[in-house]
Amino acid sequence: EKYVYDFSEGHKDLKELLGGKGANLAEMTRLGLPVPAGFTVTTEACRAYLATGSAPDELAGQIDSHLAALESTMGRHLGDPSDPLLVSVRSGAAFSMPGMMETVLNVGLNDASVAGLAAQAGGDERFAWDSYRRLVQMFGKTVCDVPGDDFSDALEEAKKTRGATNDLQLDAADLRALTERYKHIFAKHTGHEFPQEPQLQLRLAMEAVFRSWNAERAVLYRRQERIPADLGTAVNVVAMVFGNLGPDSGTGVAFTRDPATGAQGIYGDYLQNAQGEDVVAGIRNTVGLEELKELDHRSYDQLIEIMALLEGHYRDLCDIEFTIERGKLWMLQTRVGKRTAAAAFRIAAQLVTEGAIDLDEALLRVNGAQLAQLMFPRFDLAGEPAVLTSGIGASPGAAVGKVVFSAARATELAAAGEDVILVRRETNPEDLAGMIAAKGILTARGGKTSHAAVVARGMGRTCVCGADAVEISRDRFTVAGRTVAEGDVISIDGTSGRVYLGPVPVRPSEVVQYFEGEPVDSTLVEAVHTLMDHADERRRLAVRTNADTGADAARARRFGAEGIGLCRTEHMFLGDRKELVERLILAGADGDRKAALEALLPLQRADFVELFRAMDGRPVTVRLIDPPLHEFLPSLEELAVTVAVARERGEDHAEEAQLLDAVRRMHEQNPMLGLRGVRLGLVIPGLFAMQVRAIAQAAAQLAGEGLDPQPEIMVPLVGAVQELEMVRQECEHIVEEVISGTGVRVLIGTMIEVPRAALTAGQIAEAADFFSFGTNDLTQMGWGFSRDDVEGAFFWRYLELGIFGISPFESIDREGVGRLIRIATDEGRAVKPDLKIGVCGEHGGDPESVHFFHDVGLDYVSCSPFRVPVARLEAGRAAI
Ligand code: PEP
Ligand code: MG
């Protein structure tokens, strides 16, 4: 087994084996760029180490021979007392996990070789001792778990004794004393001396990097980013080059385009006389790359040349880490760089214009999540509002409101028409009402999977969590020396995680303006336009919308919807009409029921006329009424109290008592599993018939006006073919009677949202013109999770525990619920090869799920109007 690869042996496509860093170092080496010599120990060696607790037997020998080769390339021996080779030992997994794992620099230094290093550096003792103390510190922390604070405290103490404000002011003697102090700290914590043997240092550092794969923060990060837990990290052993050898040395980062906006150009920061971690630690201020041009023209020119070469080679934005050692440029890392959503779209479109990539590839470089981000309103930061503090952007959006500290206060102020931001240390299920009432939520604790984050995302509420500098007391919070009291206004940005004091103006999304058809002149909109066009050209899946009103349907159509996949007719029975439905459900006598139905018919007809008109020439799926009964009946508790009070007072309460009896009769413990959907239609005579008549009449009326209505009648909650057959028979009669001679064609189909329907789809297909997966209920009944309760109650915990990486109500559970979908699709089509099949649950607008529906071979997805562009984009990507 080959566990070690020289940089000259690998290439960029070996990421899984060599990690991203190792693969790209190898690629740069192959391109002939100035990369320090080195080798990579594979992720396979790491996996073996983690599985057994010790490195595979062959590893030591392979490392020895690669080290020997490295030594001969460099003309130095590791840790040689008179002229030492030093190496860095760096982690590098297949997926970038910034700052999650470990690195040890300057391996090979010890009490003897520190003098050799000073000699190499032209007698620079200060530099040599500074390097040695860094090794003891990093090795101590990383390899032996010595608390990092002990080292930084000692450094602070040394600076204080010296009256120094900056570590550059410590001289060689100070740093030598500090190194002794560090070694003492090391020995105290580990019970043994700092290891002097260079080969031992190397082996221990490498094993520590292996182990850092399972460090707590790395495990958490992977869970959040949905990176598999069993990949392991590679380890790169690289000859050290030094950016801290004086003013002609330094270290920096650079981007081939602006990762924030995507603008073409050269961006980066440089820090003179410093080593890598100094840049990240922000110890001194960096300067822009233009200044490097002044400082070291030759290195600058070479860097620019290399950047152009790398961009051309990777055909994408690259980010780069480099070091200049005494006027000589070294490339320490490159990768295809992370970028904002706007930059992703702009760069992809630019690269097409430049001829670097084609449209297919450009489409694969953006995604629906990025598009969704661009569709949120944003803060207008032109006034440069001061950032009060920042946390984790947990649920996107821009919210402005008065600070409140309790759910009760949030509800109270919101009811009075105020915009509020609920500020909590962390939230729990009792805060739910307050979270609903608030415009945004800010918490001091918790990450992307905390209760606050999960619930806010579920509700589409803006949320910043884990703003850990915020100290909350009962009616105020303090941060960075400022106090914010209840009622003060703050603004929170759920994308960047920033919190501002006072109101920040909110700007609508230009991408939404563009989808709305407004003229917008921007490079971002041009890029979005180009990529959306291409997605539409590529996609096989049609995209429809879920809409219950003409206005929603019209907007969705502007956003590109090709029909309505779900109109929830129960939404048409809220408000004034609720009473009519209540009368209908509770009607004792036929006469009462008939009267209620007759009153509802014209109202429903008008609803459908509006809808068919807005979607003229496109299919409109109208689902027959599916109300969980409890949403339409008066509350049992309240009614019982009213009756009791009236009785007590001796008032007449016959009518209320009768109603109470009826409600009691209909009361259900589990309404979502109760008298809903097709069951209601079969129990209440005339209800579905009224709706079907209204649909058919509306269609006939519009056909009479010369329009082209395309109604599809959908039966909800079917579990057995017999249910559908009975409804179908009744529908067909009415449809026939109303539309004959109008030229309108009406389809009758069913939702597949009860597991039994999925498992008997072959039978059900006999009675259906189409299927539409109701993945909300299919998930609810497939998992046995109450869709209305679980997100706030325990999903946050499930996510924390990693039982699933994302709520199955948000993204389709491929193995379980997805399997039901496959079975139903295959068995339905086996009976009726041209059966039209779509999906209308929330998953229809979820990027990951859209790819799954494409793979399964559905005909369309249907989602809320704002998700329509996201679904179009992802359907296009899925087809490539
Ligand atoms: C579903 O269950 O997925 C569905 C679309 O129906 P509803 O959400 O209205 O229950
Ligand atoms: Mg449903």
Automatic annotation (TrEMBL):
Question: Would the keyword Metal-binding be found if you checked this record's keyword annotation?
Answer: yes
Describe the location of the Pyruvate phosphate dikinase AMP/ATP-binding domain by residue ranges.
56-285, 294-344
Ranges of residues in domain PEP-utilising enzyme C-terminal = 526-876
The record lists substrate as bound by 568, 623, 753, 774-777
What does the record give as the active site? 451, 840
Q: What PROSITE patterns does the database record attribute to this sequence?
A: PEP_ENZYMES_PHOS_SITE
List the keywords (alphabetical).
Answer: ATP-binding, Kinase, Magnesium, Metal-binding, Nucleotide-binding, Pyruvate, Transferase
What cofactor(s) does the depicted protein rely on?
A: Mg(2+)
List the catalysed reactions: pyruvate + phosphate + ATP = phosphoenolpyruvate + AMP + diphosphate + H(+)
- Pfam families noted in UniProt: PEP-utilizers (PF00391), PEP-utilizers_C (PF02896), PPDK_N (PF01326)
Tell me which EC number(s) this protein carries: 2.7.9.1
Residue intervals of the PEP-utilising enzyme mobile domain: 418-497
Q: Which family does it belong to?
A: Belongs to the PEP-utilizing enzyme family.
What's this protein's name?
Pyruvate, phosphate dikinase
Q: Which organism is it from?
A: Winogradskya consettensis
